[in-house]
Amino acid sequence: MKIYNRQQIAERVKLDPAALEAVEAGFAALGRDEVAMPPILSMNIAESNGEVDVKTAHIQGWPRFAVKISPGFFDNPKLGLPSLNGLMLLFSAKTGLVEAVLFDEGYLTDIRTALAGAIAAKHLAREDAQRVAVIGAGLQAELQVAALRLVRDIREVHVYARDRAKAEAYAALMQEHHGLTVTVHDSAADACAEADIVVTTTPAREPVLRWSDLPKGVHVTAMGSDNPHKNELEATILASADVLVVDRLSQSRALGELHHAPALQREVFELGSLIAEGRQARSGAEQITVCDLTGTGVQDTAIANYAARLLEEA
């Protein structure tokens, strides 16, 4: 058994086309029904504004499967600590023996989450999309935009966050680290006014995005709602979008955006099925597409296998 720390992992695993290909392959396998993936084991620790999720999946034919333990404690920034942490255990799919401990402190989760957003945009956003609006100003607000640049020629970034100071700090960071100029707005509606892609990256308990905020032709990726008490999208968005996609129907209904629209009667696609079948979900330039990402065990197994392979080659 090998143990790798965050620094070792971060030196090898980056937001790059190879990592995107690995995670996309996991989604495609899920769409082909080649994945065993049980429901998420989730526990809330209300008095500390925390939660712990355990996710796993086995992809047929892949040498290893991962079990990820992922705590999220959202008051941690007040203590000078990161909100997310955790590790991944990598087991042999042939013998069940532990082959590696990836003590990544949440790094791989951050990477695979950002890549999932890029994969959603790759299959759902307009080919000419260049302007992205981000709701929220945390780590995923940075990584989602960085990952989007793997699949679209992003030229403009617009941000809205409840804390104006955090939005200003985000704008400075994106200029320094990514060479992107960011415009800070005073409302989600203003940030989204001319967007081609909108990404919501918050732990909000009430909608931060409304149907009236969305211009024609936009693609929306909602990645913050991964627990029943979280909700980023107004229900009208789910009902009115031309195309509605989720990473896993059962998860979205249990703890994602669909959880907050139980009476919704419409066709909902799974992202993996679109990828596996090569379907073009968008059929018009003015269509509005939406993808709800709750985070799946197959993403964890995909990125953990990819990371282990790179680490063993080092």
Task: Summarize the structure in words.
- This is Ectoine utilization protein EutC.
- It comes from Pseudomonas taeanensis MS-3.
- InterPro entries: NAD(P)-bd_dom_sf, ODC_Mu_crystall, ODC_N.
- Pfam families: OCD_Mu_crystall (PF02423).
- The protein is an alpha/beta fold and about 325 residues long.
- It has 2 domains: about 1-110 and about 300-314, ornithine cyclodeaminase, domain 1 (2-Layer Sandwich); about 120-295, Rossmann fold (3-Layer(aba) Sandwich).
- It contains 10 helices and 15 strands.
- Strands 10-9-8-11-12-15-13-14 form an 8-stranded parallel β-sheet. Strands 1, 2, 3, 4, 5, 6 and 7 form a 7-stranded mixed β-sheet that branches.
- The mean pLDDT is about 95.
In CATH terms, the superfamily of the largest domain is: NAD(P)-binding Rossmann-like Domain
**Sequence stretches where pLDDT stays below 50 over 5 or more residues:** none
Structural class call reads: alpha/beta
CATH level-two architecture of the largest domain: 3-Layer(aba) Sandwich
CATH fold descriptor of the largest domain: Rossmann fold
CATH class of the largest domain: Alpha Beta
Gross morphology: globular
The helical percent reads 25-40%
Average residue pLDDT: 95
What is the terminal separation in angstroms? 16 Å
**Rg of Cα set:** 18 Å
Q: Please describe the biggest sheet, giving its number of strands, its sense, and whether it closes into a barrel.
A: 8 strands, parallel
Question: Which strand order do you get reading across the main beta sheet?
Answer: 10-9-8-11-12-15-13-14
Q: What fraction of the residues are assigned to beta strands by DSSP?
A: 15-25%
How many strands? 15
* Count of runs of 4 or more consecutive helical residues: 10
What is the H/E order?
EHHEEEEEEHEHEHEHEEHEHEHEH
Organism: Pseudomonas taeanensis MS-3
InterPro entries: NAD(P)-bd_dom_sf, ODC_Mu_crystall, ODC_N
Protein name: Ectoine utilization protein EutC
